[in-house]
Every structure is written in structure tokens, then in C-alpha cells.
């Protein structure tokens, strides 16, 4: 099938905007991992399940609002996103206290332990919500699309998720470089012994950092509900892509995570229009592997905890 130049422009524009929803989920997942893996050296294979916690939180709020306060259906979603963050944050805090803090400097052990944790969390989701996928009832203002020009439809939910992602990303960067927590994190990453010597409670910093990374994954789950249904294994479907985003961008670089997530999401979205989904995935992975062979440290140089 032949496409005119105008058709190619419209296809690239529409697929590009369609890819923004995937970009948002990958970026939010990648941000959480970049904080946990890049800043702390912890391989959290259960990160996808914290995304699922956020998605199920939206579903619960939707169900409860629809049953007991249907007049608030247009207002529940932003409140549910805040709760998705704090619930995932709280669970992350408990996981760090009960499990992760005993495994620092043992990356293989953290990988195995968190993989087992992810399987356990999936079973909890399955026992609580059932094995079938569920979807929340989204507010009316998230429905529909915006047509800036003829032949170009931009989904409103995609624009909302993009705005949410920009807000969260900006907040994380601002907190990391302008807050006392960010100063403690950067000091701990640079030199843990010296940070302890200056009075920084590095154990508490690790716990808060891990919990914040999990909370951001919860927000990613909230964003995910606008583009797909939620099941017990929904988060695990994105964990490999999230690690790919962090590795490709540079393990300790938040800016690298942003650039990497955008590049991967856009490449996959545009190529999926012309190829099958699996072939588009293969092409994306081949491109990333080729670039990593030429630049093993990722797009941005990674910092390593000493």
C-alpha cells in the first residue's frame, strides 16, 4: 500500500501521540526504577506489582464511587491517583523494612528475593480481585479525542496522562536537586561512608527513596488504567521494558530515563503501524542492542555507588 507525503505526516503524528501514553507509563515506571536501581543499586523485580497496586487502587475508587457516590464520578480520578501513590509508597516502605534492607550490596539476592515477592503479590491480587482483568469507569472528561486538523485524532486521555507524567517527572527532578531529601540521596550515592560521617541517616534515606520509587510506580499504574485493563500480572508485562528504559538511558541518569522512554515508546508506536506488534518489538530491541554495543554506559553516563 502506497502512502502520500501528507498521509505519512498524519500517520507519524497520530502514532506519535498514541505513543505518548506508552511513553508516560514507561517513563513513570522507569523513573521509579532509576531511583531504586540507579540510585540504590537494588534490582527490584517486583516493581511491576507496585504499578498493579496503583491500577487496582483506581479500580477500587471507581467501583466504590459508582456504587455509593455516583455524582462524584467526574471528580474521583485525581483523588484516586494521589491514593495510588501513597498506598504503593506505604507498601514499598514495608517491603524495604522487612526485606530489602537486609540485602543491600547483594544485587543477585535482591533480584531473587524481589522476584519471589512479585509472585507472592500476584497471587494476592489473584485471590483478592480474581484472575480476570478489570477496568475502571473513567470520568467523562477523559473520553473522546481532540481533532486539531482533519485526519488527526488525539485522545484526551493521552493528553491527560502526558500532563500527569510531566508533573510527576518535574516533581521528582525538583525534589532530587532542590530538596533536603534529594541532597541526602545524592550524598549517599556519592559516598555512603562520608554521608554517614556528616550525620545523614543513610538507612532512613534508603527506605524513603525505595518507597518513593514504589509510589511513582503506583502513579504509573493509575496512568495505565486509561489505556488498558488490569489483571494480576499486568505489572510484570512492563517490568522488562522498564529495565530496558533505565539501562538504555543510563542507570543513574533521570534525564537519560526521560529520553530513553520517549525514544523507545515512539519507535515502537510508529513501527507498529507498518509492522506486526512482535516485529516492531524486535526492531526496537535490535536498535537498542546495537546502540548499547557502541555505548555500553547508555545514552547518559551512569554514576556508580562507591
Descriptive overview:
The protein is mainly alpha-helical. It has a domain at 23-140 and 153-234. The protein is 72% helix and 3% strand. It has eleven helices and two strands. It has helices spanning 5-40, 47-68, 76-98, 107-129, 156-178, 180-190, 192-197, 202-224, 236-249, 254-274, 277-294; strands at 145-149, 152-155. It has a two-stranded antiparallel ribbon. Helix 2 (47-68) packs antiparallel against helix 3, helix 6 packs across helix 8 and helix 10 (254-274) runs antiparallel to helix 11 (277-294). The protein is globular, with a radius of gyration of 20 Å. It starts with a helix and ends in a 12-residue tail after the last helix. The mean pLDDT is 85.
Descriptive tags:
306 residues; mainly alpha; two-stranded antiparallel sheet; 3% strand
Question: What does the largest sheet look like?
Answer: 2 strands, antiparallel
Number of strands: 2
Low-confidence stretches: none
Strand order of the largest sheet: 1-2
Brief synopsis:
Helix content is about 70%, strand content about 5%. With about 300 residues, it is mostly helical.
Secondary-structure map:
Layout: H1 5-40, H2 47-68, H3 76-98, H4 107-129, E1 145-149, E2 152-155, H5 156-178, H6 180-190, H7 192-197, H8 202-224, H9 236-249, H10 254-274, H11 277-294
Antiparallel strand pairs: 1-2
Amino acid at each position: 500500500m502506497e502512502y502520500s507525503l501528507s498521509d505519512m505526516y498524519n500517520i507519524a503524528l497520530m502514532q506519535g501521540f498514541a505513543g505518548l501514553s506508552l511513553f508516560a507509563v514507561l517513563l513513570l515506571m522507569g523513573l521509579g526504577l532509576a531511583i531504586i536501581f540507579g540510585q540504590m543499586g537494588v534490582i527490584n523485580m517486583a516493581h511491576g506489582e507496585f504499578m498493579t497496586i496503583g491500577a487496582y487502587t483506581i479500580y477500587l475508587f471507581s467501583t466504590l464511587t459508582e456504587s455509593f457516590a455516583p455524582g462524584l464520578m467526574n471528580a474521583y480520578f485525581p483523588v484516586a491517583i494521589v491514593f495510588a501513590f501513597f498506598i504503593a509508597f506505604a507498601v514499598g516502605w514495608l517491603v524495604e523494612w522487612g526485606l530489602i534492607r537486609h540485602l543491600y550490596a547483594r544485587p543477585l539476592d535482591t533480584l531473587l528475593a524481589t522476584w519471589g515477592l512479585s509472585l507472592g503479590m500476584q497471587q494476592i491480587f489473584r485471590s483478592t480481585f480474581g484472575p480476570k482483568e478489570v477496568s475502571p469507569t473513567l470520568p467523562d472528561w477523559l473520553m473522546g479525542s481532540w481533532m486539531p486538523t482533519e485526519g488527526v485524532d488525539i485522545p484526551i486521555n493521552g493528553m491527560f496522562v502526558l500532563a500527569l507524567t510531566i508533573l510527576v517527572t518535574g516533581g521528582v527532578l525538583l525534589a532530587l536537586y532542590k530538596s533536603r531529601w534529594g541532597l541526602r540521596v545524592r550524598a549517599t550515592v556519592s559516598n555512603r561512608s562520608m554521608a554517614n560521617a556528616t550525620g545523614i541517616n543513610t538507612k532512613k534515606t534508603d527506605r524513603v527513596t525505595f518507597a518513593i520509587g514504589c509510589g511513582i510506580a503506583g502513579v504509573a499504574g493509575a496512568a495505565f488504567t486509561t489505556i488498558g485493563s488490569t489483571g494480576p500480572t499486568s505489572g510484570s508485562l512492563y517490568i522488562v521494558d522498564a529495565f530496558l528504559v533505565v539501562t538504555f538511558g543510563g542507570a543513574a541518569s533521570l534525564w537519560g530515563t526521560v529520553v530513553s522512554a520517549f525514544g523507545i515508546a515512539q519507535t515502537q508506536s510508529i513501527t507498529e503501524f507498518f509492522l506486526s506488534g512482535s516485529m516492531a518489538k524486535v526492531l526496537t530491541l535490535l536498535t537498542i542492542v546495537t546502540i548499547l554495543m557502541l555505548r555500553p554506559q547508555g545514552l547518559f553516563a551512569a554514576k556508580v555507588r562507591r
